[in-house]
Write a structure and sequence with these properties.
The protein folds into 2 domains: 89 residues, Arc Repressor Mutant, subunit A, CATH 1.10.10; 121 residues, ZPR1, A/B domain (Jelly Rolls), CATH 2.60.120.1040. It contains 7 helices and 12 strands. The longest helix has 19 residues. α6 runs antiparallel to α7. β7 and β8 form a beta hairpin. The chain has 218 residues and is an alpha+beta fold. Helix content is 39%, strand content 22%.
Length: 218
């Protein structure tokens, strides 16, 4: 059976493109392997070679830590120690649509630890921040990152939208977006408690640390 592995404290930053690329390559390799559980050591060796890292030190520098901690920090990846004493992992598959269970998950953001909790937002999910009447819609893609970086990404996207729109955007609309950007940055500065509410019709979204997350079925 093997022993479950305690989740490590690991600051995930998927805005770092190399880390995002590693996860994408890892998921594709896992899907093509046909195996249920894979050795973490074997996966790390394959990734290092596939992505052209010279040695383990350079690889871990790109990850900002050990590969084992990276695996344990991913909410959609399950890890354990097998009978041979090896760290092994599997990527949880998406259930068929007939097995979906619509879920609402709420996390009160009170401190830095909450901001750095990793949220796996499935391709079906949307996020609501009721204090601002703000929403991050579903876009058909999986997003895995700290809550801090989910918000920072929304700030970047809104700012880019304003810049690219130029004079075609009305001044009133521009002012409203600017006010929203100030409010979103205020969330990152923890100027007040706020709530991260994730709605997922598939029920496949999750968090790295679930202890403070209120789960309701919709």
């Amino acid at each position: 059976m093997g022993r479950p592995v305690e989740a490590a404290m690991f600051k995930v930053d998927m805005s770092h493109q190399e880390m995002e690329r590693m996860l994408s390559e890892l998921e594709e390799w896992y899907a093509s392997s046909g195996a249920q559980w894979i050795s973490a050591e074997a996966a790390a060796s394959w990734l290092r070679n596939d992505l052209g890292y010279e040695d383990e030190a350079e690889f871990e520098d790109a990850l900002n830590g050990p590969f084992s901690d990276f695996l344990k920090a991913m909410p959609h990846i399950e890890t354990k120690i097998d009978e041979a004493g090896r760290l092994v992992f599997k990527v949880r598959p998406d259930p068929p649509e007939e097995e979906w269970k619509a879920t609402k998950m709420s996390l009160n953001i009170l401190g830095k630890d909450d901001l750095w909790n990793v949220c796996f937002k499935s391709q079906h999910a949307r996020v609501e921040i009721p204090e601002l009447e703000f929403e991050i819609s579903q876009d058909g893609k999986k997003h895995i990152d700290s809550i801090y970086n989910h918000i920072a990404g929304a700030v970047y996207n809104l700012g880019s939208h304003v810049s690219s729109s130029g004079m075609s955007m009305s001044s009133d609309h521009r002012v409203k977006i600017s006010e929203c950007l100030v409010q979103l940055n205020g969330l990152l500065d923890l100027q007040q408690p706020w709530t991260w509410v994730l709605h997922d019709p598939s029920g496949t979204s999750s968090f790295h640390r679930m202890d403070k997350v209120l789960v309701e079925y919709e």
